[in-house]
Amino acid sequence: MCHDFCGLCRDFLVQSLAGGIELAGVIMGKKQKASWDGYSLKPRKDMPEGLWMRCPGCEHMIYRSSVEKNMNVCLQCNHHFRIPADLRIKYLVDEGTFEEELVDLRSDDPLNFEFRGTTYKDRLEGEEKKSGAKEAMRIGKAFIKGRGVILAVMDPNFLMGSMGAVVGEKFCVAAERAAAESLPLVAIICSGGARMHESVIAVQQMAKTSAAIAKLNEAKGLYVAVLTDPTTGGVTASFAMLGDVTIAEPGALIGFTGRRVIAETIKVELPEGFQTAEFMVEHGFVDMIVQRKDMRSEIARLIDYCRK
Ligand SMILES: [Zn+2]
After folding, report:
1. What are the chain's domains?
2. CA of residue 71 to ligand 1 center, whole Å
């Protein structure tokens, strides 16, 4: 056992204790569980989470507060955890400079959508209660290392950052504001794609947001797209891939549709690392990978480089 009491050692200790209890049960005449398979060094999947959390990158149990102090990045394997929009804004902008717009814009339910015994309206209320967010995107003006920007940040905790009419509208307002005020538009993208509850209205947002970026382009504005885990579906197929500069966080899943669906449709074996940020850089869809801790400096450097 190492001095650092790493995840592996901890798992071993817990497994050993569990094994000891099992063994005592056998000695005392209790029936042994049929599923017990000895002293496994495999990480346990049912470890309670609280002070400790399991990193999906390295499978180690890590101390939650040490990860939070490290901008929600694993200290052992550099896994970048998904974070809500408010944390994203906190990490990115100069303290207290974010002036949010369209705070109370909420989704409507034009299709009276019902799915698996719940309505879209109920889902929206539930998501708001659960995440504290009112929609899957927040926009506003802010400063990054003293440079003024218009910010659009997606929230994975609200219906998986999916794009409906409100997300589309907010993004377009942000793009228009950036053009009108000659400020760079910085979008932090994290989305499961178009929102199924809004069906064709959600799909229409792809054209609407793309047109807004075309207008910003005509006005010679700068658009920096930051792709985080996950960037998928209709969002990838619209404003996520239209950046003048496209940045990605390490290991982010970036793609249009799922790996299995593609493999089954085109009947080919997909390469190792398909749909990761690193793969996208290699194949020219992403310009660079930036660590979360460097994001502020890198965006400020880009703004200076583009003289915006
Ligand atoms: Zn890790």
Report:
1. 7-69 (no CATH), 85-305 (3.90.226.10)
2. 13
